[in-house]
Design goal:
- This protein is of the alpha/beta class.
- The chain contains 14 helices and eight strands.
- The chain folds into two domains: 166 residues, Rossmann fold (3-Layer(aba) Sandwich); 190 residues, Dehydroquinate synthase-like - alpha domain (Dehydroquinate synthase-like, alpha domain, Up-down Bundle).
- It has a six-stranded parallel β-sheet with strand order 1-8-5-4-2-3, with helices on one face. A two-stranded antiparallel ribbon has the order 6-7.
- Helix 4 links the parallel strand 4 and strand 5.
- The longest helix is centred in the middle third of the chain and has 23 residues.
- It is globular.
- 50% of the residues are buried.
Length: 374
């Protein structure tokens, strides 16, 4: 592997270890904390348990985070942060909670609504004085080490990413214990989301040697551990390996961004109700096959490293793995019909990241890929 000219920037401080989510007081700046999570983590006591360890802090909760978070949820959480005069914002949960925490930590000191800054808004985020801490509870999002947030405009029903240098968490706390109770379906979908992150960073047109090595390691860890974590949720070794793989994949795609898999996933979540991990992984085998168009040699190297004879065998193996975890592998399984395909392709093509795919991406080629897995 030869290296040309490239850059690598990952300013987030990472703390990894069992039980670290119970030691947050040691790393929090200030006394006033807003903890953002989804209703499940609030109701099952996880958020309260973590808050109880911060006895020297005033902790306020915002637990109204939904999957594929809306701009309205962001504004509501920002209102709570401003009212609490939060000096630290903690995102606890999956990608939705972490993404909301990123923008909310900025809106504490930047006036107005997310709509003022997001997707063509007239304002620019000018700075962030509030500390941002990310604590993932799934092994899949990678959001704890990226500068990307993905939000949904309820009016247009468009889900689009937002990038900002202010979105890098100051600290990410990776506590494998928080993933021990993940149900099998969530283990599968989030784990395959991490697989997508890693492989999209690897074949990405903006890939570079550090990302390649990170991605290869993450992909191998996932293939070696995801089925064990799915079949035996109590297996601590597999759980630890999966969240480490997710972290590693997140660091990799934080440098490159994602590609066609994620671009096409946006309408599959907002319009067909698929979870993010399902919406990404359902097209994964097809994109692996398509990647041979512009990254044939590189994909052959990866396939052999992962124990497959070639790229087509890798695609078939990934599809078989997904089937073994009861994941959908055809679009009709999530309600997509033939007449929906042109629209899905058109929406996917509005995301700039789709052109980072190592293949020609236009309405004809994307529609053809989608029809191949209908």
């Amino acid at each position: 592997m030869t290296a040309g000219t490239f850059q690598f920037h990952m300013p987030t401080e990472v703390h990894y270890g069992n039980g670290l989510s119970g030691k947050l007081s040691e790393i929090i700046r200030g006394d006033r904390v807003l903890l953002i999570c989804d209703p499940f983590l609030y109701k099952n006591g996880t958020a309260q348990k973590i808050a109880d360890t911060m006895k020297d802090k005033k902790v306020t909760f915002f637990s109204g985070i939904e999957p594929n978070p809306s701009c309205e949820s962001v504004d509501a959480a920002a209102g709570a942060a401003r009212e609490a005069q939060a000096q630290c914002v903690i995102g606890l949960g999956g990608g939705s909670s972490l993404d909301v925490a990123k923008i909310v930590s900025c809106l504490v000191s930047n006036p107005g609504s997310i709509y003022d800054y997001y997707s063509g808004g007239s304002r620019k985020l000018e700075g962030r004085t509030t500390q941002l801490i990310a604590i993932p509870t799934t092994a899949g999002t990678g959001s704890e080490v990226t500068n990307v947030g993905v939000f949904t405009n309820r009016t247009t029903h468009v889900k689009m990413p937002m990038l900002s240098k202010l979105f890098w968490p100051d600290i990410s706390v990776i506590d494998p214990e928080l993933t021990y109770t993940l149900p099998p379906a969530v283990t599968a979908s989030t784990g395959m989301d991490a697989f997508c992150h890693a492989i999209e960073a690897y074949w990405n047109k903006e890939s570079q040697p550090i990302c390649d090595m990170l991605s290869m390691g993450a992909l191998k860890l996932i293939l070696e551990n995801i089925k064990t974590a799915y079949d035996k949720p109590e297996d601590k070794e597999a759980r630890g390996a999966m969240i480490l793989a997710s972290l590693t994949a997140g660091i990799s795609f934080s440098q490159t961004r994602t590609t066609g898999i994620h671009a096409v996933s946006f309408p599959l979540t907002t319009e067909f109700g698929a979870s993010h991990g399902t919406a990404c992984s359902i097209t994964l085998p097809a994109f692996i096959r398509k990647s041979r168009e512009g990254a044939a040699e590189k994909m052959e190297v990866l396939s052999r490293y992962l124990g497959f004879k070639d790229t087509l065998a890798l695609a078939d193996g990934v599809e078989a793995l997904m089937r073994s975890m009861k994941m959908p592998v055809r679009l009709h399984e999530i309600g997509v019909k033939e007449e929906d395909i042109p629209h899905i392709a058109k929406v996917g093509l509005t995301a700039a990241i789709i052109q980072l795919t190592p293949a020609v991406m236009n309405e004809e080629t994307v529609s053809e890929l989608l029809r191949s897995i209908l």
